[in-house]
Each structure stands twice: as structure tokens, then as C-alpha cells.
Amino acid sequence: MSISLDLLKLETDTKIFERGKEFYEENPSNQLSFQSNNLNLSITAEIKEYDCKVEYNLETGRLDIKKCTCVYFEKNNKICKHIISLALQINHKLKKTIKNIDMLDSYEKADEILNNIIELNSNTQSNEVDIEQAQSVSQITTTIKSLMEENPILNKLYIKGEISNLSPNRSGHIYFSIKDEYSLLNCVMFKTSVNNLTFKPQVGDKVILRGNITLYEPRGTYQLLVKEMKKEGQGDLFQQFLQLKNKLQIEGLFEPNNKKPIPKFPKSIAVITSPTGAVIQDIINTVKRRFPKITLSLFEVSVQGENAEKSIIKALKQADTYKTPFDTIIIARGGGSIEDLWCFNDENLAREIYNSKTPIISAIGHQTDFTICDFVADIRAETPTAAAELATPNLFDLKQELNNKKRIIIKSLEHNLENKQMRLINLETSIFSSLELNLKTKKLQLQNLKDKLKLLSINSTLKRGFSLTIDKNGKTIKNIDKLNKDEKIITLLESGKITSTINKISKKQ
Fold it and tell me: What values do phi and psi take at 131, rounded to 5?
């Protein structure tokens, strides 16, 4: 919990900052007067003789107010050496007195800050103590309480702000804080008042409170005793909104199963909104940036005031039945109060959206704004820009995706080609190996046949001691039935041939 000196250095030049450090070292505390304008939020410090003043916010750690009219003030820097000195002084005191303040609850934080203010001012107070004039803590607390209760302004207050630090109690009471941009106020609402609420308070709700300031004597802290709480700017309209929402939800108009998908690659989009203002320009710029080839058609409507819902319904019917069908319809409007956005809570408009054949994106108000349109549409966008992003693809992303897929396909083809080449090489090797083996086998078989033929040749037979008898025509004599007496025959031997004449033919018995 301290001031960021780095931020202060950015607001001034080095020379002024160094002068401030020197001034602080020369005047560490005796010229400063510390006071709190809110026990929970801030500390004010000033150097009266130079009319230099700062206000330090304990929640943000920043100097919210920097006032300087001294002679050392430099307009270009908007800060003087005295403000630097005050910042250093506050840092010094806070580091000594407030530790882990963010871990404390609201009452403990208030006590810690109160004690800190007392210590911050301790240097300017006299060391002499008048015992006779001393009062008890209870006496002082009772006096302060009486002053508060007797003050007509504090007895009937209407305060608006945002709920913070909400803490329901088992007893039915609720303890919370109400805050705005600069201050925070502790509040309590007893069970009897809580039972009259028409809604359940939540952190972040903007409300209007009626009550009176009271002092919690055991801790010596003040708080707002809340008698009545109402949502700011809503009231009866908000109740009507809840009733219609509940009715349509029961009928099934919000069912996810009934939602139509938003086309990923639309050719044309209809935009139902006001022709003026930032909304249509944001949508146009976003679509041009993401996917400029898409055709945008504007259906001009009134987005606020009397008969605005009729204008929107008419435009929606035209867009949904257009001669060249649209791929998507965007209904958009900028932020505003519940009254400003009320035309988008119309029941007839909700039913028209539900019955639309064309997918619809609702982009009504800011991120925290919700209308009936948002619930019944096929999808809700937090902003008009977000609606344009939901409705269109991003050309850059598509190119990236296509390039990635292209690289994947090329790598896959290269890998497949390498595999095919390897298989071809292996097949070629296998074929050549098989042919060589077959050729060797055939050669061996041929050689065997040659050897067999050689063994069966006449010369081989004759060499083995056999003879061969042929007739006069050179034909081998296999049977004696065709031989005649006195016929000449020739007997072949290895060493030559013998010519003979048949004298006698004898058959085998």
C-alpha cells in the first residue's frame, strides 16, 4: 500500500523530482497536515504555506488530486517539488503504519486508517497531555453519534451507487458497501427491510438506497442503515423485463436446440440498426478488415423511442424475405439505460426473431446490457464489433489456415512420393534379383539337360562299350521282324564299323 513513484516520475522531469526528494529530506514531517475526508478511502495532505495539496486514494494507490499554486509550480509539468515531497511523506508514513490493509475487512480497514491518520498528525501535536480534560472513548463516540442522529441531512438520505463487498448474514441481515468512482460507504440492511426487496442484490448492481447514517459504537465507525433499496433506472421496467423473459423462456423461445447455426462463409449480411452513430461504422470497418468481399446491406431503423420496435420488426421481415436471401442478419445498437434499450424488450419483436428463417446475431448495448432480443436470437454478441466478428471469417486467418493445410498436403505428397519411389526401387531390385535367380536356375537346368543329352548320345553309348546296328539306309534296327536273309547290316563301334550279311534270323523264344 504505497504511492507509485514511477508514475510520478513520468509526470515531471528528473530535476523537479530530485528537488522534491531534497525538500522531503529537509522537511520530513513538521510542515505537513494530514486529514481524512473518508475513513475508508483517502488521505489528504497539504503544505499550507505553499498552498500545495494532494489526495491519496487507498484503493488505487494513486494521487487523485494534485493541487499546486506555489511559486515553484511549472505549468508544463503540472506538479511541483512539494507534491513530490508529500508523496514521499505519505509513503513513509503508510509503510510504517498500514500493513496488509487489503486483507482487512471494511471495519478493520476503517480502524486502521483512523489510527494511521492519528499517527500521521502526531508530529504536529503537543506532547503535553491535560488529564483532567481527557474523555473516554465511549464519551467521544456517543457525542459523535448524537451529532449524526441530530443532523436532518443524515437522517433521510437517498444515495445511489454500486454495490460492493456484499456479505449476507445467517440472521437475514445483509452487510455491504456502496461506492462510486471516488468514495465508499459501509451499509447494513436488516432482515425486515431485506424481506421487502423485489430482487436479490448482487455485487456490481447499481442501486438507489434510502436510509440514515448511524454510528456503530463498538467500533466507532459510521454506516448507512438502509431502509429501502431499488435498482437504479429500472424499477417497474425491470420487473416487466423479468416477467416477459420468464414467459418466453417457459414457451421455449430461448432453447439452445432451436438456435440456428451462423454460416461460416457468408456472401451477404443484413444489418438492422440506425444509419447514424458509431455502431454501423464499427460493423463496416470490422467486416472490411476481416473479409472485404462480403456484401453488407443496411436496413435503417429507429433504435430508441416511440414505435422503434415496429420499425425494427418491419426491417426484420424485409431482410428475412429479401429477394436474394441473406446469410446472416445482425441487429445492433449502442449502449444505454434500460429505457433507451426498451424497444428491444418487445414481445412481438422477440417472436419475429424466433420465427426468422435467417440466422440472427443480437448486439444490443454494452457487455453488461441484456435484452429479450439477446436471449431469443441465435447468438448474442457483447458489442457490435463482436457481432461483425462472429458473422464473418477472418481472411488473414483463412489464408494462414490454407497455407498450413497446403504445407501439410505438400509434405504428405512428398512423403507419399518418397514411399512410392522407395517401393519402386525395392520392387525393381526384387524383380532383377528374381530374374537373375531364374536365369541361373534355367542355366543350371539347361546344363543338366545338356549333360543328360550328352550321356544319351551315340558316341557316349559307344564309348561305354555298346554298339549300334543300322540298315543300309542308316536307320537303327530295333526289331528283327523287318530284316531279311542275305540283307546287309552295319554295326557301329567306338573304334569303327563292321558290315555284315545276314545268314540266319532267330527270334527270341
Answer: -65, -35
The 3-state DSSP composition of the chain as helix, strand, coil percent (nearest 5) reads: 45, 20, 35
Per-residue model confidence as pLDDT tens digits over 188-219:
999 989 988 877 888 888 888 999 998 888 88
Quick one: cell of 142? Answer: 456517543
- Indicate the angle between helix axes 81-97 and 14-26, nearest 10 degrees: 60
- The residue assigned the cell 457490435 is 384
Q: Distance between CA atoms of 377 and 332, rounded to whole angstroms?
A: 12
> What is the 3-state secondary structure of 259-303?
CCCCCCCCCEEEEEECCCCHHHHHHHHHHHHHCCCCEEEEEECCC
CB proximity list for 335: less than 8 A, separation 6 or greater:
365, 366, 369
| pLDDT, tens only, 301-347 | 999 888 899 999 999 999 999 999 999 999 999 887 777 888 999 99
CA distances from 267 to 51, 297, 324, 356, 388 (A): 66, 11, 11, 18, 13
pLDDT-above-70 percentage for the chain:
84
Q: Alpha-carbon distance 56 to 315, whole Å?
A: 53
- Grid cell digits, residue 179: 461506492
CB 241 within 8 A of CB 372: yes
DSSP string, 3-56: --HHHHHHHS-HHHHHHHHHHHHHSSSTT-EEEEEETTTEEEEEETTTTEEEEE
How far is the C-alpha of 58 from the C-alpha of 1, rounded, in Å?
A: 7
Q: Which three cell numbers stand for residue 149?
A: 442522529
For residues 468, 473, 479, 484, the Cα torsion angle rounded to the nearest 10 degrees is: -120
- How far does CA 353 lie from the centroid of its chain? 28
Size of the chain in residues: 509
For residue 292, the tally of other CB atoms under 10 A from its CB is 9
Q: Edge-to-edge strand order for the sheet containing 328-333?
A: 295-300, 268-273, 328-333, 360-364, 379-380
**In Å, how far from its chain's centre is CA 134?**
61
Query: How far is it, in rounded angstroms, from Cα 155 to Cα 213?
Result: 6
Sheet hosting strand 42-47, strand order edge to edge: 33-38, 42-47, 52-57, 62-68
Within 10 A of 168 (CB to CB), how many other CB atoms are there? Answer: 14
